[in-house]
Amino acid sequence: MNTTPGRPPHAPTAVLIGAPTDVGAGHRGASMGPEALRVAGLQPALESHGLQVIDSGNLSGPNNPWKPPVDGYRHLPEVVLWNQAVFDAVYGELAQGRLPILLGGDHCLGLGSVSAVAKHCRETGKKLRVLWLDAHADFNTSELTPSGNVHGMPVACLCGLGPAELTGLGGHTPALRPDQIRQIGIRSVDEGEKRLVHEQGLEVFDMRFIDEHGMRHAMVQALAGLDDNTHLHVSFDVDFLDPEIAPGVGTTIPGGPTYREAQLCMEMIADSGCLGSLDIVELNPALDVRNKTAVLAVDLVESLFGKSTLMRERDRR
Q1: Known binding positions for Mn(2+)
Q2: Residue 316 has pLDDT above 70, yes or no
Q3: N or C: which end of the chain has fewer CB within 10 A?
Q4: Is residue 172 over pLDDT 90?
Q5: Residues annotated within a binding site
């Protein structure tokens, strides 16, 4: 039993995995995201909530060549190499019973991270639920997007729509069934992408839904059906947040969740007791103001691990 003072006896060990690349993005700067999160105090913040935290440093991968798309994909060889590195690192930590926290980097890295989690769940017999917190559906394909930026394609690739090098990362295609993912905060979807989302039957709690029904109702539905055998993965794109409070992202979309809506989202995820892995992606310090977006991201991640503004007892599983 772990008897470190102040740490619950069954607290998980969280491992920070930096992936400093913007190879899948349309703007440079997300490669600096991991260091900005460290500077904002992510490790001590998590440790203050009883976690043992190991910072494994940064993964290595190819430089961003900053070239135009080839056959509908920008930087596909580099994207594959980065995602393979992420896959190996996340899968390795899960195999040791640790909680991996991926520090991106752009959201194309969610491919490697979620593919690793999906493989782990298949092997251990756990159910998988993915919460995709994002302003974008990320369900584009090379036929739908002229930019070819893969950070707009990871959910489609995870559902088997994309090049084999990405859809088969975990040795199983598709890595994810559409009914295993819930998207929250969506407010920017291309027309062709919208049709594909409907065809695949993704469950999307967009900002219209949140405006009409509230964040609490959205999260109740997004978390419905979780149990003690569920592994919950959260893929947190910082552009999920309204740019008024989080300007440090490459693709700012107005009308996102407020600070309190975002806090409630994170607190309800924490209340589920099922969080098993996390991505924090698309933080772009080059576009930030005195690292305020990184500080906010750390604040919200603290809420995922037990910080609450409410003086109440949590429902412990």
Answers
A1: 107, 134, 136, 138, 237, 239
A2: no
A3: N
A4: yes
A5: 107, 134, 136, 138, 237, 239
What is the Cα–Cα distance from 184 to 173, expressed in whole angstroms?
24
Annotation marks residue 35 as catalytic: no
Cβ atoms within 10 Å, residue 275:
18
Residue 36 has pLDDT above 60, yes or no: yes
282 carries an active-site annotation: yes
Q: Token match 């919460």: residue?
A: 131
Number of H helices, E strands in the chain: 11, 8
Q: Nearest-CA neighbor of 61 among 8, 112, 122? A: 112
Q: Which CATH superfamily is domain 13-304 in?
A: Ureohydrolase domain (3.40.800.10)
Tokens of 95: 């195999």
Catalytic residue among 134, 242, 267, 302: 134
Is-catalytic flag, 211? no
- Given 93, 193, 279, 282, the catalytic residue: 282
CA distance 141 to 69: 13
Question: CA 53, CA 55: separation in Å to the nearest integer?
Answer: 7
Task: Confirm whether 107 is a catalytic residue.
Answer: yes
